[in-house]
Amino acid sequence: xxxxxGSQGSIVAAPIGGDHVANPPFRLPSLEEILAIMTxxxxxxxxxxxxxxxxxxxxxFDCAPANSASAVIHSLSLRADTPYAVIEADGNCITTSHLGxxxxxxxxxxxxxxxxRAGAGDMSRVPS
Length: 128
Prior knowledge:
Order of helices and strands: EEHHEHEH
Oligomer: single chain
Radius of gyration: 22 Å
Shape: flat
Number of strands: 4
Mean pLDDT: 76
Helix content: 40-55%
Strand content: 5-15%
């Protein structure tokens, strides 16, 4: 950190040259990676807070960010014993398979909530 003359003691970072901005010394994440990271981060934050009974990840069919996030979230769900379903939609209709997945997760969530109310569970159990 440098103190610029005449800045009345303000501490500011040293200036960055234009070549550093145009050619950063690291690889910037792609939009797909950012979307997957944000989806996983949102799930992990909610899991830690105990703010839900289960999770349904709905993504577009063959969407790379959704598929990447689903792989990580599935692993976290198994470790935290949290109901989880992935639904890949290719339009605006819900198929019989999708409906079955949603009904299963809803039943698992009801059982999980009942166990929590009975004092047998911990809604904020986070994988280590």
